[in-house]
Amino acid sequence: MILVTTPSGGIGRRARPRILCPKGRVGSSPTLETKLKIMKTEIKKRLYREKPEATFSHIKMGIAYYYCDLGDENLIFEIPVSDMGDAQFESRMSAQLLIRWLT
User: Does the pLDDT of residue 8 top 60, yes or no?
Assistant: First the structure.
Protein backbone atom coordinates (compact mmCIF):
# COMPACT_ATOMS: atom_id res chain seq x y z
CA MET A 1 0.00 0.00 0.00
CA ILE A 2 1.08 3.55 -0.73
CA LEU A 3 0.23 6.58 1.40
CA VAL A 4 -0.83 9.50 -0.80
CA THR A 5 -0.29 13.09 0.26
CA THR A 6 -1.45 16.43 -1.14
CA PRO A 7 0.74 18.51 -3.50
CA SER A 8 1.86 20.61 -0.53
CA GLY A 9 3.23 17.52 1.17
CA GLY A 10 0.55 17.12 3.85
CA ILE A 11 -2.42 14.84 3.90
CA GLY A 12 -4.94 17.66 4.22
CA ARG A 13 -6.26 19.39 7.30
CA ARG A 14 -9.26 17.18 7.90
CA ALA A 15 -8.44 14.37 5.52
CA ARG A 16 -7.69 10.95 6.73
CA PRO A 17 -4.81 9.18 5.03
CA ARG A 18 -5.71 7.99 1.54
CA ILE A 19 -4.43 4.59 0.63
CA LEU A 20 -3.98 3.56 -3.01
CA CYS A 21 -4.83 -0.04 -3.60
CA PRO A 22 -2.25 -1.89 -5.68
CA LYS A 23 -5.08 -3.21 -7.90
CA GLY A 24 -5.79 0.31 -9.14
CA ARG A 25 -8.98 1.05 -7.25
CA VAL A 26 -9.74 4.71 -6.64
CA GLY A 27 -11.46 6.80 -4.01
CA SER A 28 -15.13 7.66 -3.56
CA SER A 29 -15.31 10.03 -6.55
CA PRO A 30 -16.15 8.03 -9.68
CA THR A 31 -13.62 8.04 -12.48
CA LEU A 32 -14.45 9.39 -15.92
CA GLU A 33 -14.71 5.81 -17.19
CA THR A 34 -17.28 5.02 -14.48
CA LYS A 35 -19.28 8.15 -15.30
CA LEU A 36 -19.33 7.20 -18.99
CA LYS A 37 -20.55 3.70 -18.14
CA ILE A 38 -23.35 5.20 -16.03
CA MET A 39 -24.33 7.55 -18.89
CA LYS A 40 -24.31 4.67 -21.36
CA THR A 41 -26.52 2.60 -19.04
CA GLU A 42 -29.01 5.47 -18.76
CA ILE A 43 -29.09 5.82 -22.56
CA LYS A 44 -29.76 2.09 -22.92
CA LYS A 45 -32.66 2.38 -20.46
CA ARG A 46 -34.11 5.23 -22.52
CA LEU A 47 -33.79 3.22 -25.73
CA TYR A 48 -35.82 0.39 -24.20
CA ARG A 49 -38.35 2.75 -22.62
CA GLU A 50 -38.92 5.11 -25.58
CA LYS A 51 -38.34 2.60 -28.44
CA PRO A 52 -36.99 5.12 -31.00
CA GLU A 53 -35.98 4.27 -34.55
CA ALA A 54 -32.47 4.52 -35.92
CA THR A 55 -31.96 5.77 -39.47
CA PHE A 56 -29.22 4.58 -41.79
CA SER A 57 -27.01 7.44 -42.97
CA HIS A 58 -24.01 6.15 -44.92
CA ILE A 59 -21.10 3.72 -45.10
CA LYS A 60 -17.56 5.06 -44.98
CA MET A 61 -14.34 3.06 -44.75
CA GLY A 62 -16.14 -0.16 -43.82
CA ILE A 63 -18.33 1.43 -41.11
CA ALA A 64 -22.12 1.79 -41.46
CA TYR A 65 -23.57 4.79 -39.61
CA TYR A 66 -27.03 4.85 -38.07
CA TYR A 67 -28.40 7.89 -36.24
CA CYS A 68 -31.09 8.07 -33.59
CA ASP A 69 -32.74 11.16 -32.09
CA LEU A 70 -33.71 10.87 -28.42
CA GLY A 71 -34.95 14.45 -28.20
CA ASP A 72 -32.16 15.99 -26.14
CA GLU A 73 -29.49 13.57 -27.39
CA ASN A 74 -28.42 12.38 -30.84
CA LEU A 75 -26.96 8.91 -30.82
CA ILE A 76 -24.58 7.46 -33.38
CA PHE A 77 -24.27 3.74 -33.99
CA GLU A 78 -21.05 2.81 -35.83
CA ILE A 79 -21.37 -0.71 -37.21
CA PRO A 80 -18.37 -2.36 -38.87
CA VAL A 81 -19.55 -3.95 -42.10
CA SER A 82 -17.60 -7.06 -41.08
CA ASP A 83 -19.96 -7.40 -38.05
CA MET A 84 -23.07 -7.41 -40.25
CA GLY A 85 -22.58 -10.92 -41.58
CA ASP A 86 -25.82 -12.14 -43.18
CA ALA A 87 -28.10 -10.12 -40.86
CA GLN A 88 -30.73 -7.89 -42.40
CA PHE A 89 -30.11 -4.18 -41.76
CA GLU A 90 -32.96 -1.90 -42.85
CA SER A 91 -32.78 1.81 -43.66
CA ARG A 92 -34.94 2.42 -40.56
CA MET A 93 -34.93 -0.01 -37.68
CA SER A 94 -35.43 -0.18 -33.93
CA ALA A 95 -32.50 1.47 -32.14
CA GLN A 96 -32.73 -1.26 -29.50
CA LEU A 97 -31.32 -3.70 -32.04
CA LEU A 98 -28.20 -1.55 -32.42
CA ILE A 99 -27.30 -1.05 -28.75
CA ARG A 100 -24.26 -3.27 -29.15
CA TRP A 101 -22.68 -0.60 -31.36
CA LEU A 102 -23.57 2.46 -29.29
CA THR A 103 -20.65 4.93 -29.31
Answer: no
**Per DSSP, which regions of the chain are E strands?**
2-4, 18-20, 53-60, 63-69, 74-80, 92-94
Q: Where are the domains of the chain?
A: 29-101
Q: What's the average model confidence in pLDDT over 34-52?
A: 87
- pTM comes to 0.64
Contacts of 40 by beta carbon, 8 Å cutoff, 6+ apart: 102
C-alpha span between 22 and 40 (Å, rounded):
28
Specify whether the backbone of 9 is left (phi greater than 0), alpha (psi in -120 to 50) or beta. Answer: left
